[in-house]
Amino acid sequence: MQVVSVIGAGSWGTALAILLARKGVKCLLWARDSDFAQQLQEKRENTRYLAGFPLPDSLCITSSLKDAVCEANVLLMVVPSHGMRDVLNAVSGILRSSGREKAIDAVVSASKGIENTTLLTMTQVMEQTLPVSLHGSLAALSGPSFAKEVAQGLPTAVTIAAANLELAGELQRLFSAENMRCYASADLMGVQLAGALKNVIAIAAGICDGMELGDNARAALITRGLAEIARLGVRLGANPMTFAGLAGLGDLVLTCTGALSRNRHVGVKLGRGIRLKDIIAGMSMVAEGVKTCASAWDLARLHQVSMPITEQVYRVLYEDRDSRTVVRELLTRPLAQEFDVHLSEQ
User: Fold this and answer.
1) Range 3-186 has CATH code 3.40.50.720
2) Is the pTM of this model over 0.85?
3) pLDDT tens, residue by residue, 299-331
4) Of 112, 198, 269, 291, catalytic
């Protein structure tokens, strides 16, 4: 694994590219917009999404997807989940026409979302779009990791998941650095669901904070949010222990409490009575939880899994329900046991 192409020059893609380049890995960073790519090349800084962190001299910038794909052994996909399929289709076409399928050792998703139309995780979208020969080389990177802190070199721990644990181990070594510790997992489904669904719960936590409901309410919401994420995950075949790990509890706590969380930011504004369209209009980066909430609620109904917090966030986002109304409905639900051995509907 000698050359990594990071597909997506947002804050997270840029931070990962900086991490790898600092480590001495040959790395390319792809930006869709040619003018933006030229700006990155000239300024050697992503002033739009990750200002204040110089791009290492060894990091190559390109707006040519063909160049990024044809020079890489590892493709690190860091585009928003709603745009993943289109980019993967383009990647697939390049691989098929160039005959470079066998040169790709791994395709890694670092995007946290669930496709709205199909309800698929990002690696499942990869299976639908990429050549069959690459289906055994898919992986996902997730965990509590704000881009800014990774770029600062602050200590961070994440999970890299692949169905093939040998591949997960190779990627674990690739992404581990002095201040980045990676843990390997074979639970692709659990790691991806946890990473996507925590964004929905973070919006709910932000609503609580925006309404000034207190620390007790936030702690309860995080805990019960984890319970419903795990319920859906187990129903879809995930390892329940994944939700107690970095991709689960770790990322959930960070996103629900951290000041850098875009999803929590959306929730705080909603809790203060600001309309969603106005919140989104004032943001330069994507809050994945807004779109993921619709997918999560559809999955919950499809698989008949109780996800009351997700349901109420959906009501706020897509049915224009008042935040105080949904909080009252959550608190006045029928009483239930806290634990069930089988993670039953509660």
Assistant:
1) yes
2) yes
3) 999 999 999 999 999 999 999 999 999 999 998
4) 198
